[in-house]
Structure formats: structure tokens, C-alpha cells
Design brief:
Helices cover 21% and strands 37% of the residues. By secondary structure, the chain is of the alpha/beta class. It has a single domain (2-145), classed as D-tyrosyl-trna(Tyr) Deacylase, Chain: A. The strands form two sheets. Strands 1, 2, 3, 6, 7 and 8 form a six-stranded mixed beta sheet that branches. The protein has a two-stranded antiparallel sheet with strand order 4-5. Strand 6 (72-77), helix 2 and strand 7 (121-123) form a beta-alpha-beta unit. Helix 1 runs parallel beside helix 2. The protein starts with a strand and ends in a 5-residue tail after the last strand.
């Protein structure tokens, strides 16, 4: 499981020109799921996301988590996070899980984030063509992979 996490002052998802989800200060989470991901990946990555101290405190040091600031979370599925570009110019998405595998894990992460953060979780629409807009705060952007725990 791979996520790109961005601290945002605001973010939204539009589908067919209409706002589908919108948050203020918090985290935009782009989520990629691969074939071998399991509930263990969901649990690990959820705990990591909600406890990351990546928001500024009163001294402008990264010491606060999304829980500490009572921030909002927006989760957007993005299979292209598993795109391979080694050969040619057209990415291969062979490592991305198919929808029948990815959808239940996507839903499980949304539920787990709700429990771990004690906050409402907003989402994009799985499999839809979405336009994601954000104001990256900091800017702070991290990539976390449950198979490569660095």
C-alpha cells in the first residue's frame, strides 16, 4: 500500500464539474493499492498517517499530528501510484490491484482512519474520473509505502 500525503489548508474533489468532497485544514491522502496488500497494511498505514507529526506548533516546528490539530482527512484512490515507467513511454500498471481487490481495502482504510483519527473521513469516488484541487500547506508532501517502511 502506497500513499502520498499532503498537508493542505484546503482540498477538494470534483466529479463531472461538481464538488464531490471538500475539506479545510488537514490531509489529502492519495492511495495506491497493490495485489499483495492486506488488512495488516491498512492497519499500519492508518496508524502512521494519523500519528505523523507534520503540522506546525506555536514555534513553527513540525510537532503536531492531524489528530492534534483536529484536521480533516480526504482519501482519494489513485492506482497510478503503482505505475512503472522503466520500459517505453507508456506506464504499466501491472502492480496495481484490480478493483475487486482494491475496493475492499480502500473501504477498510477509510473505516480504519475514522476509528484511528476519531474524525469523519471524506473521500473521492473509487474508479471515477476526478479532478483533485489542493492548496499544499508548507509545502509538506510525504510518500509512505507499507512494504518499504523507511
Amino acid at each position: 500500500m502506497r500513499v502520498v500525503i499532503q498537508c493542505v489548508s484546503e482540498a477538494s474533489v470534483r466529479i463531472d464539474g461538481q464538488i464531490y468532497s471538500q475539506i479545510q485544514q488537514g490531509l489529502l491522502i492519495l492511495l495506491g493499492i497493490e495485489h499483495s496488500d492486506t488488512e495488516k497494511d491498512v492497519e499500519w498505514i492508518s496508524k502512521k498517517i494519523v500519528n505523523l507529526r507534520i503540522f506546525s506548533d506555536e514555534n513553527n516546528h513540525m510537532n503536531k499530528s492531524v489528530i492534534d490539530i483536529k484536521g480533516q482527512l480526504l482519501v482519494v484512490s489513485q492506482f497510478t501510484l503503482y505505475g512503472k515507467t522503466k520500459k517505453g513511454n507508456r506506464p504499466s500498471f501491472i502492480n496495481a490491484a484490480p478493483p475487486n481487490v482494491a475496493m475492499p481495502l480502500y473501504q477498510a482504510l477509510v473505516k480504519r482512519l475514522k476509528v484511528d483519527s476519531q474524525n469523519k473521513i471524506l473521500t473521492g469516488k473509487f474508479g471515477a474520473n476526478m479532478q483533485v484541487m489542493l492548496c499544499n500547506d508548507g509545502p509538506v508532501t510525504l510518500i509512505i509505502d507499507s512494504k518499504n517502511k523507511e
